[in-house]
Amino acid sequence: MSNTSKHLSFFESVNRNFDRAAAHTSIPKGLLEQIKGCNAVYEMTFPVKIGNTYQVIEAFRVQHSHHRLPTKGGIRFSHMVNRDEVMALAALMSYKCALVDVPFGGAKGGVKISPRNYTEQQLELITRRYTTELIRKNFIGPGLDVPAPDYGTGSREMAWILDTYQTFKHGEIDAAACVTGKPESQNGIKGRTEATGRGVYYGIRQFLSYADDAKALGLEPGIAGKTMVIQGLGNVGSYSGSISQVEGDAIIVGVSEMEGTIVNEKGINIDKLLKFRKDKGTILGFPGTKTLPDRKDWVAINCDILVPAALENQITTENAKKVKAKIIAEAANGPVTSEAADILATKGVVRLPDMYRNAGGVTVSYFEWLKNLSHMRFGRMEKRFQENSLSNLLSTVERLTGQNVSSREKDVLTHGADEIDLVRSGLEDTMVNAYDEIRETLKRKKNIEDLRSAAFVVALNKISGDYVRLGIFP
Ligand code: NAD
Fold first, then answer.
1. In whole angstroms, what is the distance from residue 325 CA to residue 300 CA?
2. Tens digit of each residue's pLDDT (9 = 90 or more) over 137-146
3. Are 152 and 200 part of one and the same domain?
4. Which residue ranges have their beta carbon within 6 Å of ligand 1?
5. Residue 108 is among the residues annotated as catalytic for this protein
6. CATH code assigned at 56
7. Of residues 108, 112, 326, 462, which has the active-site annotation?
8. Which of 338, 333, 242, 254 is nearest to 21 (CA)?
C-alpha cells in the first residue's frame, strides 16, 4: 500500500511502533534514524525456463541493519511478496534478534511466486537461481547474510541453497553456516523445524505464569485448560498448536486454513488433524468439528487466546471489533495492523508481540549456525561424561542408603544431554528471559503503552548500545 492510501503499509506500521517506543528511550535522533532505515535493498529479476517459456521472476533481499554481522532472516515464497513487505520483515528481524540476544543484524528475502503453481523441479530451479543472484552480489555467506525458512519455504529449499552455495564456494570451510533451517542430515540441527512453534508455546506459558497478569484478564494462571484458536496450519501454526496441546494441556477450539475454518469447543487434536489434512487435502470435514459459514470469522471465535500464524495484516480495522479473545499471541509477523492494535487496546485485549513471540526460529537458527561453525554436534563432548558422573553419584547414593531405584528411574536420572535436549533448553531459557526483560521494562516505565512498545524499547537500547560500542555514534 502506498503512502497516500488510507491504511499504513506494513513497513510504515512497524515504524509507527518504532516511533512510539523510541519516545521512551534517550537514544539520539540521528542514531534512531540510522537504526530505523534499511541499510541495503537488493531488488532483482531473473529469467527461469518453465516448460517451454521463460518467466521473469521478481525477488528481493533486504539487509535492514549491519550493527551486527551476519545479517539473518528467512526467505518467503509468496505471490504477495513486495518491497515494502520484505523491508518490514527485515526490520522486525533486527529488533527480534536484539530482543533475544542473538548476535545478528536483521534481513529478509522474498521471491514473488506462488509455490503451488510450480513443480518441485521448477521450485528447485527458482531457488538455485535466486541463490546465485545472492552469491553474485555478496548477499549470502556465513559471515555476511544467512537466510532461513519463512512462509512458503522449508528445509528442502534450504538444502538447495546450501548446495548451490557450496558449488560456487568450493572448499570454503564454514560454507554450511551460509543458511539455517537445513535438513538434519545436511548440517541442520535437531529441533529447528519445531522451534518457532515451540517458542510460541514457551512465550504464552511464561506470560500466563504471572498470576497477577492472568487475573487482570479474568483468567487463572497457567496455560492448562485455556482455549486457543489457530489461523494457519503451516510450520508455525501446527507446532504452536500441537505443543501447546500436548505439553501445555491447552484446548484448541478452532483452526482456520485457506479452505475454511473449523470449530469444536471440546477441542481439536492437532496431530490427528494434520494427518487428516495430509490424506484428504483439507481440514474441512474433520470428525467432530463444524465448519463456519465464513472462513474469516476465525477472529470472532469465543476463546482465551488467538494465535494468528499465517501472514501479516489479518486483524484489521474491519474485524478487530469482533475479537472475543483476551490474548493475541502473534505467531506470524505483523498479523495485527497498527490501527487495529488501537481498537484492541481499547477492548483490553493483550497482544504478545510478534518480535518476541516468534523469535524461537531465529534462536535455534543461531544454535544451528554455531554448530556449523564448530563443525560438531551439541552434546558430543559432554554427554558420556555427564552420564558416567550421574551414574557414579546414583550408585553411591544407592550404596549409602541401601535402596535401589528402578531401571526406568535410573535411565531418567542418569540421562546426559543430547543435542535436542540442549536446543530445547536453550530455547526455553531464551524465551523466558526475553519475556521477563520485556515485562520488567513495562512495569518499570509506567507510561509505556504495552508489551510491544516495551519489547521495542529493550531491542532499541541493545542495538544503540552496539552502535556506540562500534564507535559509530558517540
Ligand atoms: P507456512 O507456509 O509453513 O504456513 C502458513 C500457513 O498459513 C499455510 O498453511 C497457509 O495455507 C496458511 N494461510 C495463508 N493465508 C491464510 C489465511 N488467510 N487464512 C488461513 N490460513 C492461511 O509458513 P510459516 O513458516 O508457518 O510462517 C507463518 C508466519 O510465521 C509468517 O508470518 C512468517 O513470517 C512467520 N514466521 C515463520 C518462522 C519460521 O521459522 N517458519 C519464523 C518466524 C516467523
1. 8
2. 999 999 999 9
3. no
4. 74, 149-152, 196, 231-237, 256-258, 309-311, 331-333, 358, 361
5. yes
6. 3.40.50.10860
7. 108
8. 338
